[in-house]
């Protein structure tokens, strides 16, 4: 849709910085952010610091699985104890539950 109308407004420097920061948090330009905020009235910011922890845990699980797969393919192990993997998955599950509660 072609944008053919403008709204001009005055802000303090602090207000502008806050709006720019929030727009950056949700990976939007300032126009899209203000339009969404004004029309939808709800913008969920998913850039929660806890997501970094989830990312790290998922990487650890992926590394563990790759190592176990390699050892199995090389014939160095026949059975795999997955207790550590279960523990890592449990940690991720708990983090995801916390994130879900924060978003609601």
Quick structural gist:
With 104 residues, the chain is an all-alpha fold. Helix content is 66%, strand content 0%.
General description of the model:
- There is one protein chain.
- This protein has 104 residues and is mainly α.
- The protein folds into 2 domains: 7-46, no CATH class; 49-103.
- The protein is 66% helix and 0% strand.
- The protein contains 4 helices and no strands.
- The radius of gyration is 22 Å and the shape is elongated.
- The mean pLDDT is 81.
- Write down the overall geometry: elongated
Number of helices: 4
Which blocks of ≥5 consecutive residues have pLDDT under 50?
none
Structural class: mainly alpha
Q: How many strands? A: 0
Helix percent reads 55-70%
Largest sheet: none
Question: Key terms for this structure?
Answer:
mainly alpha; elongated
Describe the SSE topology.
Layout: H1 13-25, H2 30-39, H3 49-73, H4 83-103
